[in-house]
């Protein structure tokens, strides 16, 4: 997580909102409170996920002290002292470093569980791997897909594609 990435995401989020406002032929802030953008689609909003509006403004916190429910709405661009945080998408994305460390741990656990299963002459079950099913790079669940044998032979595919441009002298339209 870098500040530059967060700034870029906030900028893009604001561009999307501005494009929506222009499409409706109005940029008047009072017509577009944040609830319009961030409310789930099931409740009539646009269902956007926020990346940039991290702090709840002080002016909105005075209402949370009057009620039992706490904070439900907020305005962006204001500041406050208590640093109460809005749950936004940025907090739920793991950093690459954490993802790699977690991946090493998960694959080491998988190797141990597989050794135990082989020693007991049994197969690994979903219950054995349930806590690590959607973790690791590549994900543990890829071992249990129909095309797992193809995946085993295709290690390093992205790197090979990158270096192929120096061997083959024609344009690759699918470089992205």
Automatic annotation (TrEMBL):
Query: Superkingdom, according to UniProt?
Result: Eukaryota
Gene Ontology BP terms: spliceosomal tri-snRNP complex assembly
Q: Report one GO cellular component.
A: U5 snRNP
- What terms describe the molecular function in GO for this protein? pre-mRNA intronic binding; U1 snRNA binding; U2 snRNA binding; U5 snRNA binding; U6 snRNA binding
Boundaries of each Pre-mRNA-processing-splicing factor 8 U5-snRNA-binding domain copy? 1-93
Q: What is this protein called?
A: Pre-mRNA-processing-splicing factor 8 U5-snRNA-binding domain-containing protein
Q: Which organism is it from?
A: Strombidinopsis acuminata
């Amino acid at each position: 997580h870098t500040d530059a990435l967060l700034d870029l995401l906030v900028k893009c989020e604001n561009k999307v909102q501005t494009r929506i406002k222009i499409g409706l032929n109005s940029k008047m802030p009072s017509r577009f409170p944040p609830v319009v953008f961030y409310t789930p689609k099931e409740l009539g909003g646009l269902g956007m996920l926020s990346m940039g509006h991290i702090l709840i403004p002080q002016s909105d916190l005075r209402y949370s002290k009057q009620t039992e429910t706490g904070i439900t709405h907020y305005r962006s661009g204001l500041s406050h002292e208590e640093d109460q945080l809005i749950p936004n998408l940025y907090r739920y994305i793991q950093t690459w470093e954490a993802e790699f460390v977690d991946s090493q741990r998960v694959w080491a656990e998988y190797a141990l569980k597989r050794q135990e299963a082989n020693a007991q002459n049994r197969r690994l079950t979903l219950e054995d791997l349930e806590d690590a099913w959607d973790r690791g790079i590549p994900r543990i669940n890829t071992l249990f897909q129909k095309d797992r044998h193809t995946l085993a032979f295709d290690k390093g595919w992205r790197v090979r594609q990158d270096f192929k441009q120096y061997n083959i002298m024609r344009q690759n339209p699918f470089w992205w």
